Amino acid sequence: MYRFSYSEILEDAAEIGRERERLAFDRALGLLRDVEARGSRGPERTVAIGFVQDLWNILIADLIDPENGLPEDLRVNLVSIGAWTMREAGEALRVPERSLQALIDVNASIRAGLQ
Fold first, then answer.
1. Alpha-carbon distance 94 to 5, whole Å?
2. What counts of helices (H) and strands (E) characterise the chain?
3. How far is it, in rounded angstroms, from Cα 3 to Cα 31?
């Protein structure tokens, strides 16, 4: 029978969470990059931007949870980035001609930080 310490289980859970976050950002970035490369103005654009909004809604909810274990200054900075992302995504939906490159760049930077 295997026995794990509580700290080992928590460490594994945190790594699984980071992997899920990486995968979610990979998906968001793939959608955004595809839409941007094709210059899509249709439903694919709405789906891509909606995915980013959904991702950040989840992340912000987790970041403002008092139980979140990240340092407070990091959480505040990430919430600020999330708020900017939500505003930029809203503008990109409102103005179909608006480039998605800023959303791609910021989310790629956050994704890179999850390594």
1. 51
2. 4, 0
3. 41
pLDDT at 10: 47
| Torsion sign, CA atoms 58, 15, 80, 62 | positive
Task: Report the alpha-carbon distance of residue 17 to residue 23 in Å, rounded.
Answer: 10
Per domain, the residue ranges of the chain are 18-112
Encoded amino acid at 15, one letter: E
| pLDDT, tens only, 41-95 | 899 999 999 999 999 999 999 999 999 989 999 999 999 999 999 999 999 999 9
Give the chain's length: 115
Q: Is the pTM of the predicted complex or chain greater than 0.70? A: yes
The CA distance from 51 to 77, in Å, is 21
Pick from 48, 99, 51, 55: nearest CA to 81: 55
